[in-house]
Amino acid sequence: MWWMMNEGGGHYCSKKTDDICGDVCGQESSRLSLSRIRCILRGIDLKTYIFLFILVPICIFGIYIHGQKISYFLRPIWESPPKPFHDIPHYFHENVSMEALCELHGWRIREFPRRVYDAVLFSNEVDILTIRWKELYPYITHFVLLESNSTFTGIPKPMVFASHRDQFKFIEPRLTYGTIGGRFKKGENPFVEEALQRVALDYLLKMAGISDDDLLIMSDVDEIPSKHTINLLRWCDDIPQVLHLRLKNYLYSFEFLVDNNSWRASVHRYQTGKTRYAHYRQTDEILADAGWHCSFCFRHISEFIFKMKAYSHNDRVRFSHYLNPKRVQRVICKGADLFDMLPEEYTFKDIIGKMGPIPHSFSAVHLPSYLLENADKYKFLLPGNCLRENE
């Protein structure tokens, strides 16, 4: 009888349970014994095994490989778009007088043009620097260039400009060239080194003789204002104190037009004690169709690989095979992304619209004149010439 069993020290529990691993009457051990683990595993069906040992590792590996893509695709959720620029329409035709052009922009013409300083930090972009300075040469009062023996990421580099200086004799009388020693702090945020070099460029500008109301172009070497843009700004009064330039944004060459949204280049009416050389947004005013930004527009595969490791976003090289020369060449001709990234946009519409390789462009209209005049030398920058030299 059940009451006799109870009186004899036995235990009875009327509670029903589906736990096949529970002790008699639900009395569970306080420790997780090996036999209990076996019992738990016997209760797991095949689908659960598949999920635990196949699907979960695959998901973890997928996140490791494509985590950056997932983050960029979800960017519209965690980051709001920046405030829109106020676009200033850009009017130009070679047969229209400068006075009429200034009036079209709502500005007055000056009695004489302002002096113009073009200041850049230089790494190794010899071809693009040549095209830039040939484009701007007629309207630049003084060229200022700063070079370091270190990349922003702390990698030693040769003084490339110094070794190619003979190629730039045409601007030598107007050139102030300076050098700065790197600190070689690997692992430090690259933007720290970049900021220090831009501060040094401020001092170099003062040595070059810049003064109040001179125009100062602040842009990277590969952000090239068109010469008619600079001529307009030096001749017109009442232009904004600071003005960003909206550039056509190209990748690898002028065959791959990404968009018209490159905006970091700017022109300043210099103010002693106030103007600081920078490469971020400094105003809401931007002049439309003001030039070209040709990013990663190199002649040699080795130059692509060097920049991938050297520039401020080197953390995008997540896997060593990204630097394989054959892969780099395939990516260039395809118009794909060297870092296998999604577009850096702020809306799902823009991200999806720009996914995949950049469409090929077959237009070589309205490009820097020196580039077209020397097409044989710079054919790697023109449509239909994606193959690069292996040096």
Automatic annotation (TrEMBL):
GO terms for molecular function: beta-1,4-mannosylglycoprotein 4-beta-N-acetylglucosaminyltransferase activity. Pfam families: Glyco_transf_17. It comes from the Eukaryota. The keyword Transmembrane helix applies. The chain crosses the membrane at residues 46-65. GO terms for biological process: N-acetylglucosamine metabolic process. One of its GO terms (cellular component) is membrane. The keyword 4Fe-4S does not apply. Keywords: Membrane, Transmembrane, Transmembrane helix. This is Beta-1,4-mannosyl-glycoprotein 4-beta-N-acetylglucosaminyltransferase. Coiled coil: none annotated.
